[in-house]
Design brief:
Strand order of the largest sheet: 10-9-8-21-22-23-24
Distance between the termini: 74 Å
Oligomer: single chain
Largest sheet: 7 strands, mixed
Radius of gyration: 25 Å
Helix content: 10-25%
Length: 630
């Protein structure tokens, strides 16, 4: 082969791999016979046209829906003209394609319907190493609006990711499914495209969740959220927990234990992290949520390791950087989340992936998602749990603007997105508590924005100076429901001076304050605590003196008193409830935002009910919280 032809194939391989890393499974590549590959784009149309040719088989459903697709289906990152579609095929159904075995430079999707991919691709489709996807506006698929073939990526845990952005109509509900050569058909998924960018929109309705330790309880909140009438769902992180049974940390329910291939109690290897996602996504309630609504997701710390910070340090496991483990966690998140992000395993852990991104809902709302783990500084006062990270008196570095949560590049991007947003509402998907949280002069949690107070003030001052209004921050992480006012200066804060609001959602299953107090008093371990039990024990001793036991009635009174103390000493916190689990729903209109927080009655039993915990309105152009319930 000539040097020119070799270079052409090598360039084709690089383009193919780059496109794989973006999550796109459909390609438009200039013919290699015309010289180097110079164009590549999504082309579901070409795939659909190719299906109609006699050279391709038409996959037909033969089995009951769901067989062969152990993690069901998911959609995410919707646009006005498409979404990311995701599934995973059981390796026993199809071996899939290996990018090491198939020459990527020969994969061609020709723009001309009269042309077709080369024989290697055709043969791979005939062998069942691809899946066929179908999209319809009818749940019974009586009329297919888009169809095509997508590779099953053997090297990426047999996942399929299809980006159909640019192929569908705005603000339309679509159904989708995947079919294998052998006739296995997935369950049906559903998603809604966004309104046309910048177009007039009257309302939007979305739900959001965070912190879902599989081992600690049942996913009733996911099931109930799936049943809501929503445009999409936001996940604020801790979608999985790297820990599965550390005796100092978790006490799994008998039927929700996870055993990692490494035999360790925390994930460290590629197989470990994949086992976590495979197990979590096998849950029927989480599957139902993904089948019913498109999800836009970011991570927090437990997708890698607790309280992580740059450069890939997991302080509970080692003070040393572990870039290989971080890169592995990034890769598996990319594999399993239906997100329109890139991943390049040849890059350093912090350059391999970028999950901060934004979405617009017509002229009504801009949604801005940030990453508060990959680039953040170490904890300002030290890494010891008690007295440095938690229940800390603070230290000067907290107030240094160079003590960063976002990193230089992301901070500039965030401020630019907020300032340039032309939509009415600016919704910031933020992982950890933004407003201060203190008790008797001590900071409860310097893993949150209190540990980065200088940068917090810098952001708030910049947004206030820019005249940003209708700014709502949605937050997870603390396993608590909160409704807070955001201020430029919390030392001289009055309600009238608020510049935004923060609305925190409680956890799906991870332990809340009430459960942590129960653990402390009873000497038991639950799971996924947002604060170390040593900090909770010290906090109780400081307030009530040594406590060894108490009845359930007394426990409720203690929790109530703690909540009252928190709201009294943090007057910007208008509601605080850390006794339950659940989810939140927000409705945006031209005049107001309406926030509803829902509690589930139990995560330990198979049955649960939901109830309205809080309801409030945020009037247009006013940083106020008007409560009608709770």
């Amino acid at each position: 082969m000539s040097d020119r032809n070799t270079n052409t194939i090598d360039q084709g391989r690089r383009v193919f791999l780059k496109s794989l890393l973006t999550g796109s499974a459909l390609f438009l590549v200039d013919s290699l016979t015309k010289g180097p590959v110079v164009a590549i784009t999504r082309t579901a149309n070409a795939a659909q046209a190719a299906i109609a040719t006699s050279r391709y088989p038409r996959y037909q459903p033969k089995y009951a829906p769901g067989i062969g697709f152990p993690q069901s289906v998911a959609s995410g990152d919707p646009t006005a003209t498409g979404a990311m579609l995701w599934t995973r095929v059981d390796p026993a159904v199809s071996p899939g394609l290996s990018t090491d075995k198939v020459d990527p430079g020969l994969v061609q999707w020709m723009q001309d319907p009269a042309s077709s991919p080369n024989e290697d691709v055709i043969e791979s489709i005939r062998q069942g190493r691809f899946v066929q996807f179908e999209i319809s506006e009818q749940a019974d698929f009586s009329h297919i609006v888009l169809s095509g073939f997508a590779p099953i990526y053997q090297d990426y845990d047999h996942i399929v990711k299809v980006d159909v952005d640019g192929r569908l109509q705005p603000q339309t509900t679509y159904y989708y499914r995947f079919i294998t050569h052998s006739g296995h058909v997935s369950r049906t998924g559903r998603f809604q495209t966004l309104p046309a960018t910048g177009g007039p929109v009257r309302s939007a309705r979305f739900g959001y969740v965070s912190c879902a330790d599989y081992t600690n309880g049942y996913y009733h909140a996911y099931r109930m959220l799936a049943e809501e009438d929503l445009d999409f769902v936001i996940h604020l992180g801790d979608y999985i927990y790297e820990s599965v049974g550390d005796p100092q940390y978790q006490n799994p329910l008998p039927d929700r234990q996870i055993h990692l291939p490494s035999g360790k109690s925390k994930a460290f290897t590629l197989a470990d992290y994949r086992t976590l996602y495979q197990t979590y996504r096998s849950d029927p309630d989480l599957q139902r949520l993904h089948e019913r609504h498109a999800m836009i997701a970011i991570w927090d710390d437990h997708e890698f390791a607790n309280d992580t910070y740059f450069p890939a340090v997991a302080p509970d496991d080692s003070p040393e950087s572990d870039p290989s483990r971080r890169l592995t966690a990034n890769r598996v998140w990319f594999e399993y989340m239906p997100a329109r992000v890139t991943f390049d395993g040849t890059q350093s852990f912090d350059r391999s992936i970028r999950i901060f991104r934004s979405f617009t809902w017509g002229d009504l709302a801009e949604f801005i998602f940030t990453d508060q783990r990959l680039y953040r500084s170490a904890h300002p006062c030290g890494e010891k749990e008690l007295g440095e990270r938690y229940l800390s008196s603070g230290c000067p570095r907290m107030n240094d603007p160079d003590q960063t949560m976002l990193g230089k590049e992301q901070k500039a991007w965030f401020l630019d997105r907020m300032k340039s947003a032309t939509a009415l509402w600016k919704i910031w998907a933020n992982e950890v508590q933004f407003t201060p949280l203190k008790l008797f002069g001590q900071y409860l949690n310097l893993d949150a924005w209190d540990g980065y107070a200088g940068e917090r003030r810098q952001l708030t001052e910049a947004l206030k100076k820019a005249g940003i209004r209708n700014w709502i921050t949605i937050t997870g992480d603390l396993h608590t429901f909160e409704a807070n006012l955001i201020h430029e200066d919390y030392g001289n804060a009055s309600d009238e001076q608020a510049v935004g609001v923060e609305l925190m959602v409680g956890s799906v299953t991870s332990s809340n304050l009430k459960e942590m107090v129960q653990q402390t008093i009873r000497g038991s371990i639950s799971g996924s605590n947002p604060l170390p039990l040593s900090a909770v024990k010290q906090m109780l001793a400081d307030i009530f003196g040594p406590v060894s036991s108490m009845s359930e009635d007394i426990l409720d009174k203690v929790i109530h008193q703690l909540s009252n103390l928190i709201t009294m000493q943090n007057p910007w916190i208008k509601r605080f409830d850390s006794t339950t689990h659940g989810y939140a729903v927000m409705e945006l209109t031209r005049d107001k935002a309406i926030w509803r927080a829902y509690a589930v009655s139990s995560i330990q039993s198979r049955d649960a009910r939901k109830s309205l915990l809080f309801e409030c309105e945020i009037p247009r152009d006013q940083a106020r919280l008007n409560f009608s319930h709770g």
